[in-house]
Amino acid sequence: MTQTLALTWTTVCLLDRLEPDRGVAALVDGVQIALFRTADGLFAIDNRDPVSGAYVLSRGIVGSRGGVPTVASPLHKQVYDLRSGHCLDLPGVTVARHDVRCRDGLVEVRLRQEA
């Protein structure tokens, strides 16, 4: 069984600063993340595209596939489930996802690391 270690919550920005259906990059505890605000909620994943290795997912196209909130890599167009980080186009490919919440109008992220 895989156990997830959670670090502390880090304030990233005001919720009002996140435009709906657009990504933004942020540095949290030395890790580049991509943060998204959609009609389905807030999502945080690594900004690094696991296919190309480039830090570009925050610039991806936000959408949905079968009711699943997604982001498509701007480089090779692989689509990732924002809830789980799983690539919907390439089996076995995933991007790390992180916990995200809004408290008192502030967006906070907590990095997740697999143990």
Automatic annotation (TrEMBL):
<keyword id="KW-0411">Iron-sulfur</keyword>
<dbReference type="InterPro" id="IPR017881">
    <property type="entry name" value="NirD"/>
</dbReference>
<feature type="domain" description="Rieske">
    <location>
        <begin position="10"/>
        <end position="109"/>
    </location>
</feature>
<dbReference type="Pfam" id="PF13806">
    <property type="entry name" value="Rieske_2"/>
</dbReference>
<protein>
    <submittedName>
        <fullName>Nitrite reductase small subunit NirD</fullName>
    </submittedName>
</protein>
<keyword id="KW-0534">Nitrate assimilation</keyword>
<dbReference type="InterPro" id="IPR012748">
    <property type="entry name" value="Rieske-like_NirD"/>
</dbReference>
<keyword id="KW-0560">Oxidoreductase</keyword>
<keyword id="KW-0408">Iron</keyword>
<keyword id="KW-0479">Metal-binding</keyword>
<keyword id="KW-0001">2Fe-2S</keyword>
<dbReference type="InterPro" id="IPR017941">
    <property type="entry name" value="Rieske_2Fe-2S"/>
</dbReference>
<dbReference type="InterPro" id="IPR036922">
    <property type="entry name" value="Rieske_2Fe-2S_sf"/>
</dbReference>
